[in-house]
Amino acid sequence: MAKPGVALQLYTVREDCARDYVGTLTAVAEMGYPAVQAAMGYGGLSASALNALLGDLGLSMAGSHVVLERLEANLQDEIDFNLGIGNRDIICPWLKPESRTEATYRGLPDILNRIGQKCHEHGLRFSYHNHDFEFERLDSQYAMDYLLARTDPKFVALEPDVYWLRVAGVDPAAYIRQYSGRCPIIHLKDMTRGANPTYAEVGEGVIDFGPIFAAAEAGGAEWYVVEQDTCQRPAMESVKISVENLRGMGKL
Predict the structure, then answer these.
(1) How far is CA 11 from CA 16, 39, 119, 198, in A?
(2) For residue 66, what are the contacts with CB-CB under 8 A and spacing of at least 6?
(3) What CATH number was assigned to the domain covering residues 5-237?
(4) DSSP the chain
(5) Residue 113: how many CB atoms within 10 A of its CB?
């Protein structure tokens, strides 16, 4: 079984990307990240320009986060762009707060299936990225389980975020095992110690990644994607710590 690749979700370094997208990707590649995952945008570059940049830097694309509203309104544009940069995975990253309602959850499976089927027709893969809010109860089950039970695994995968699973009170490794074979990309975040935990660099907090790695790899995961929503030190310093720790864990 091939070892999953390691990527950086560029949302972590969004302020750096806003100042200098090309320079930030260059620095990320120099740190040793072999891939990146796009964060709701591509630095204003065309598909051909971004594809050339990735090639020059030796970076692969490990997915693109695209908000649901754009997926509904401009799906073909996103498909065409991602085909142009050699990216297989399109991911819905979240639901807006006003959309986290029972009515939305009940209508969402049909929407996700339609998006996923269209991606599938073009040789792409579609996933949904969890936070903690999908772990409210709906019909005596988690809303996340409701969505996954009503979407076709051929069209809709899950991108588990281990930090948000932990926040929701769910064992990340157990949840990945529950959906074994349906989680091609795993979001890695760590959690600080103390009464009011927040985000930490991978390997610097309380999350036990050993069982997570075992469950992910048993289920055929292809990518580990580092993401830190907010950093207590400069973001570029944080992502360097994470990649160095992953190297020490034998994941690079």
Answers:
(1) 10, 5, 23, 16
(2) 40, 78, 90, 91, 92, 93
(3) 3.20.20.150
(4) -PPPEEEEEGGGGHHHHHH-HHHHHHHHHHHT--EEEEESS-TT--HHHHHHHHHHHTPEEEEEE--HHHHHHHHHHHHHHHHHTT--EEEE----GGG-SHHHHHHHHHHHHHHHHHHHHTT-EEEEE--SGGGSEETTEEHHHHHHHTS-TTT-EEE-BHHHHHHTT--HHHHHHHTTTS-SEEEE-EE--SSS--EE-TTSSS--HHHHHHHHHHTT--EEEE--SS-SS-HHHHHHHHHHHHHHTT--
(5) 17
Task: For residue 187, give both structure tokens.
Answer: 């979001």
Domain map (residue ranges) of the chain:
5-237
Q: What angle do CA 25, 27, 29 make, to 5 degrees?
A: 70
pTM exceeding the 0.90 threshold for the entire prediction: yes
- The pLDDT profile of the chain, 252 residues, written as one tens digit per residue, is 679 999 999 999 999 999 999 999 999 999 999 999 999 899 999 999 999 999 999 999 999 999 999 999 999 999 999 999 999 999 999 999 999 999 999 999 999 999 999 999 999 999 999 999 999 999 999 999 999 999 999 999 999 999 999 999 999 999 999 999 999 999 999 999 988 999 999 999 999 999 999 999 999 999 999 999 999 999 999 999 999 999 999 999
CA distance 124 to 184: 13
Residue type, 248: G
- Centre a 10 Å sphere on the Cβ of residue 86 and count the other Cβ atoms it contains: 13
β-pairing verdict for 5-9 and 35-39: parallel
